Amino acid sequence: MTLPPALAEIVDDFGALGDSDKVTLLLEFAGELPPLPEHLREDVMEPVPECQSPVFLSVDATQPSAVRLYFSAPREAPTTRGFASILHQGLDGVSAQDILDVPADFYFDLGLGSAVSPLRLRGMAGMLGRIKAQVRAQTVPGA
User: How far apart are CA 75 and CA 81, in angstroms?
Assistant: First the structure.
């Protein structure tokens, strides 16, 4: 599996831990999700209904060599916030093609399947799917 370097490093970090430490690391990521820039508000962002919590994202692929990602996830939903932060830290600033090349199920390699519910993992898949769809819409002619 080919992942952008930052995302590959995150996957490796999770892979080196036991289940309880993976949850701790996920919660650490939740605290690292950056705030939205002033020009973005949730009402202009795409909702991610696959998530159990209200999550919104925005993709700016005007520079396909360095796609920017923005997320809004409530602090009361640390698992979802952690997933958003993993995607932000792993994919923000990478090329559109690198994002499109990320396997849809890469999150299984984080090894969180026994630590969080399948419904929560589906939320991460939903986030990645929506990011890819926005990247395609903004960079692939006729998409």
Answer: 7
Please count the other Cβ atoms lying within 10 Å of the Cβ belonging to residue 41.
Answer: 11
End-to-end, the C-alpha distance of the chain in Å comes to 25
Spatial distance between the Cα atoms of 79 and 102, rounded to a whole number of angstroms: 21
pLDDT digits (tens, 9 = 90+) for 24-34: 999 999 999 99
What SS3 class is residue 47?
strand
Task: Please choose, from the candidates 52, 34, 71, the residue with its C-alpha nearest in 3D space to the C-alpha of residue 121.
Answer: 52
Residues of the chain falling short of pLDDT 50:
none
Extended strands (E) in the chain = 46-47, 56-60, 68-72
